[in-house]
Amino acid sequence: MIKLPKHIENLIPYKAGKPVEELAREQGLTKIVKLASNENPLGPSPMAVEAVKNSLSELNRYTDPKSFLLVKKLSQYYEVPQERIITASGSDALLQYIIYGVCEPGDEVITSQGTFIGWYVNADKYNIKCVRTIMDDFTYDLNAILAAISEKTKIIYLANPNNPTGTMFTRSQFEEFLARVPDTILIVLDEAYTLYARKFKEYPDGLKYEKDNLMVLRTFSKDYGLAGLRLGVGFGEQNLIQALYKVKLPFEPNMLAQVGAMAALDDINFLKETAELNEKSLNKFRTEFDKIGLRYTKSAGNFLMLIFHDESTAIQFNNECLNRGLILRHTGSFGVPNGVRINSGTLDETEFAIGVIKEVFESIKVEV
Ligand SMILES: Cc1ncc(COP(=O)(O)O)c(C=O)c1O
């Protein structure tokens, strides 16, 4: 038998939201609504779909490893030089490449408890210790992160808004933090949900800060509705970007992802509709949850995290919703055992979810 490394044997892999087909198979339900993976309820950007369709006849070709045309367009769109941009199969792939390309054995990374599971898993994959500091009211405590810095710290990971809590830190908090982090430590600022947070005046746009030790990540999975296509973008210092190109798989992101993303960048209407629907859906949730006394986080993303008294109540609530065809996400694997995350939906999905949640809340007499 092949002897596996201990850290791989012990690795707890990424656990995705339950697929609709799986629940349909298990429960034989006819109506199922999935609000578990922060996907775009409007579907994919229509302009991206059109571009992908028109490129299918090129599938016999290997793709451009540097995504030249896409990077050029991203450079114009975001006003960032091309040398500072890399694309990959989702920002999750970039998280992996950053740890692989930057860390050596014995290095450590820091983030907060209760953040994106992808960061924990990627650190574990490379056997890099991930120090997790405590949260302050479901929000990153940036001072706790600063206090945890040691001579072993190589990277600090921050998601803003954060997943699964949706909370955000402000521009002044971030700027104070930036000024205090030694420039030998890379700060990874993951802005997967930036579209939804931009309306807040105090939201810091990571691309406004050009610091050599700051890397900003964006994804086309959420606001452009292209989670299935896999396209993530990293913006950072030129040498770092070159290092990441060395470790990246050569033919990612795939050709369809590249053309889809290029077209999506022009789909201004789709972004507008996405932001508007998100606001409507989450506001409906907030109104109804307030009426029944269900607590939730102050989210700047396209989701809320419901807060329960304890882990077993959160799990029971999640399971009871599943039994009724509503797929939500228990946040235990993110490090918040008493949370359940729900993302915005179409208005029909929102109504369905409210109906199920009220029924479950009533039937199990949830203690909040
Ligand atoms: C904060 C955060 N970063 C990254 C990702 C992964 O995005 P992608 O689909 O680009 O890999 C997610 C997905 O849920 C996320 O919430």
Provide structural commentary.
The protein is an alpha/beta fold and 368 residues long. It folds into 2 domains: 9-38 and 272-363, Aspartate Aminotransferase, domain 1 (Alpha-Beta Complex), CATH 3.90.1150; 46-264, Aspartate Aminotransferase, domain 2. The protein has 14 helices and 15 strands. It has helices spanning 6-9, 20-27, 46-55, 68-78, 91-102, 117-125, 142-148, 171-180, 194-197, 238-247, 255-264, 268-292, 311-323, 347-363; strands at residues 33-34, 85-88, 108-112, 129-133, 135-136, 139-140, 153-159, 186-190, 214-219, 232-235, 295-296, 303-307, 326-327, 329-330, 339-343. The strands form 4 sheets. Strands 2-10-9-8-7-3-4 form a 7-stranded mixed sheet, sandwiched between helices. A 4-stranded antiparallel sheet has the order 11-12-15-14, with helices on one face. It has a two-stranded parallel ribbon with strand order 1-13. Helix 5 runs parallel beside helix 6 and helix 5 (91-102) crosses helix 10. The N and C termini lie far apart (49 Å). Pyridoxal-5'-phosphate binds at residues 38, 90-92, 116, 118, 159, 163, 190, 192, 219, 221, 227, 232. Pyridoxal-5'-phosphate is lined by residues 38, 90-92, 116, 118, 159, 163, 190, 192, 219, 221, 227, 232.
Question: Could you give the topology of this structure?
Answer:
Elements: H1 6-9, H2 20-27, E1 33-34, H3 46-55, H4 68-78, E2 85-88, H5 91-102, E3 108-112, H6 117-125, E4 129-133, E5 135-136, E6 139-140, H7 142-148, E7 153-159, H8 171-180, E8 186-190, H9 194-197, E9 214-219, E10 232-235, H10 238-247, H11 255-264, H12 268-292, E11 295-296, E12 303-307, H13 311-323, E13 326-327, E14 329-330, E15 339-343, H14 347-363
Parallel strand pairs: 1-13, 3-4, 3-7, 7-8, 8-9
Antiparallel strand pairs: 2-10, 5-6, 9-10, 11-12, 12-15, 14-15
Bound molecules: pyridoxal-5'-phosphate.
Pyridoxal-5'-phosphate binds next to helix 5.
